[in-house]
Structure formats: structure tokens, C-alpha cells
């Protein structure tokens, strides 16, 4: 689409900076290494993992009216498997 850009990332480095986010409305902020106190030479870059495809059919089927209600642990187990992460990485919030 004209006027849009697709950014592809081939490598990433894990960075942990305490209190880097100051409570702004949006946790996305543009800055540079110097502004965050990071020396890029000290970063260890890892290859970006390939995206995992999740079948739209599987998603729709999981929401079928014929499907029995899920417990939180069943939902976390299924989501972890679908997205290739640990169950501990899944957070579920229920609002009434």
C-alpha cells in the first residue's frame, strides 16, 4: 500500500533497562542508544525466529459453539502450543 513501510528485522538484542518506560500513555518511544545509555558494541544479537503460522481454520474451530467451555489452564495450554511459547508466557484477563 502506498505511503506505508514494511519493516523486517533479521536480528535482535535483549535489553533490560530498569524504569526506561516513565509511564507514558504509549510504551513506544523513539530514541537512540545514547539516550538509553547503551553501548551497541556490548549487545549480543540473535537471529530473529521465523514467524509461526496459526491456521485461521484452527482459530475459528476453537471458537465454535460446539466446543465445550475451557478452563483457564486449558486455554493457556492451547495458546502456548499455538504460538510456540511456554504456558507461563500466557496471561489471560477476564473482565465482567
Describe this structure in words.
This protein is an alpha+beta fold and about 100 residues long. The protein folds into 2 domains: about 10-45, no CATH class; about 55-90, no CATH class. The protein is built from 3 helices and 2 strands. It has helices spanning about 35, 55-60, 70-85; strands spanning about 10-15, 45. It has a two-stranded antiparallel ribbon.
Tell me the major beta sheet.
2 strands, antiparallel
Q: Structural class, judged by helices and strands?
A: alpha+beta
Determine the fraction of residues in helical runs and give it as a percent range: 10-25%
Distance between the first and last residues' Cα = 39 Å
Q: What are the segments in which pLDDT stays under 50 over at least 5 consecutive residues?
A: none
Domain unit count: 2
Radius of gyration equals: 19 Å
The helix/strand series, from N terminus to C terminus, equals EHEHH
* Strands side by side in the biggest sheet: 1-2
Number of strands: 2
Shape: extended
Provide the residue-averaged pLDDT: 82
Portion in beta strands: 5-15%
Number of helices: 3
Kindly list the characteristics that best describe this protein.
single chain; 96 residues; 2 domains; 24% helix
How is this fold's topology laid out?
Layout: E1 11-13, H1 33-36, E2 45-47, H2 56-62, H3 72-83
Produce a short descriptive summary.
It is built from three helices and two strands. The chain is of the alpha+beta class and 96 residues long.
